[in-house]
Design goal:
single chain, alpha/beta, Aspartate Aminotransferase, domain 2, 2 domains, seven-stranded mixed β-sheet, four-stranded antiparallel β-sheet, 13 strands
Length: 405
């Protein structure tokens, strides 16, 4: 069945709002529109089930059941066990909590490898452990392409490396890293692996079980859901790391790395993400559950690649623009950073009258941009889209850029 963009957009109430008519949203890397299924569940929880969950009375029982449903259905779509998925206030917070557990787990003399391709949330928490005497090694990007070379990582790995942390893709470079191959390389050397999937997951939930990494993190508010961070931590390492929660929660994996209590309504509403992926798959002839996740992933990527290539071709051909990352849409996510001759934030402002919602700055990826020689005072213009973006909006973006630049 042909990709039904009209049906897709109908699942997002934002497109029905008069205040957003004529506005093309190209800041999806900072947070996506929320799907109707999540909004409906959030409204139902706050109006019918806003009580302490897991008590015997009906409203409480239903609230707790919906929280459990969110965890079990999303875990199945990610290819992991239900208890290996946990929720937290944000991916940044989840990473900091994980880093504190690693601080007590790592042995004297061991080291951690990070990259300079990362968003600061998956770099800063690990780098700060240097204050505890832990050696931090940096896997560096190619300054021209922004790519990470696995051969460089292989040269860095030795018996002292306890942990390797890297992104599935960067929020400014956009290049897709081969997570399964990099994970296998690191684990063969005896290291654990933490992957930041925040910039990848909006373009299709990955099969984390198949990727093989020990931890995979992403943000629900960028995958059409509420403002929650989602973390998969595989059981063998999760139970080996020190408990970071209340002592009486130490035997429950999905509670061990959530020091504060869960946001009941937002966790419950996250089941709406699974509703949406099921519906997207079924509408296009697929099944539900894990099959829906794979079907939705392929549908999203195919649509995005088709829309992305003309934008990359335009940016590559324009002398006043430096395209950051690959020029082949198949090799990257549709998160496109452009280094310009002027101030990127000012250009983003100039795009507003053209109905283009975009952003300029460093997007917490200062290390990557500096490594590629980008002036942080100017920053980059970032235009990012997802599977609900339509061709006319990308055409409008290119036309607006041509007038503004």
């Amino acid at each position: 069945m042909k990709y039904d963009i009209a049906w897709v957009r109908a699942q997002f109430p934002a497109f029905e709002q008069s205040s957003l008519q004529g506005q093309a949203f190209f800041e999806n890397a900072g947070g996506s529109y929320t799907c109707r299924q999540v909004i409906d569940r959030m409204n139902r929880f706050y109006t019918q089930r806003k009580v302490q969950p897991y008590a015997p009375y009906e409203s409480s029982r239903l609230g707790g059941a919906e929280m459990d449903e969110a965890r079990s259905r999303l875990a199945a779509m990610l290819g992991v066990a239900t208890h290996e998925l946990s929720f937290g206030p944000s991916t940044t917070q989840n990473t900091y909590v994980l880093a504190q557990a690693v601080r007590r787990w790592i042995k004297p003399g061991q080291s951690i490898i990070v990259t300079n391709q990362d968003h600061e949330a998956n770099s800063g928490p690990w780098r700060r452990l240097a204050e505890e005497g832990i050696t931090i090694r940096e896997w560096q990007i190619d300054p021209e392409t922004g790519a990470l070379n696995p051969d460089d990582l292989a040269d860095m790995l030795d018996d002292d490396v306890a942990l390797v942390c890297f992104p599935h893709c960067s929020n400014v470079v956009g290049a897709l890293n081969d997570v399964a191959a990099i994970t296998a390389l690191a684990q063969d050397a005896g290291a654990r692996v933490v992957v930041d999937g925040v910039s990848y997951a909006p373009h299709g939930l990955p099969d984390v079980g198949a990727l093989g990494c020990d931890v995979y993190l992403f943000s629900a508010y960028k995958t059409y859901g509420p403002h929650q961070g989602i973390m998969v931590i595989r059981e063998d390492w999760g139970m080996e790391l020190p408990n970071q929660a209340h002592h009486f929660n130490g035997d429950t994996l999905y509670k061990r790395f959530t020091p504060a209590g869960p946001d009941h309504a937002q966790v419950a509403a996250s089941a709406g993400m699974a509703d949406y992926f099921d519906a997207l798959s079924q509408h296009h002839g697929g099944g539900t559950g894990p099959e829906a996740a794979r079907k939705a992933h392929d549908l999203m990527r195919a649509h995005e690649v088709t829309l992305l290539q003309p934008l990359l071709d335009y940016a590559s051909a324009k002398n006043s623009v430096r395209l950051i990352g690959p020029s082949d849409a198949v090799q990257r996510a549709p998160t496109v950073a452009l280094a310009l001759e002027g101030d990127a934030a000012e250009v983003a402002e100039q795009l507003v009258p053209h109905g283009i919602m975009a952003g300029g700055g460093d997007f917490y990826a200062q290390r990557a941009l500096q490594a590629m020689g980008v002036d942080l005072d100017r920053g980059v213009l970032r235009v990012s889209f997802v599977h609900y973006t339509e061709k006319a909006e990308v055409d409008a973006l290119i036309t607006a850029l041509d007038q503004v630049l």
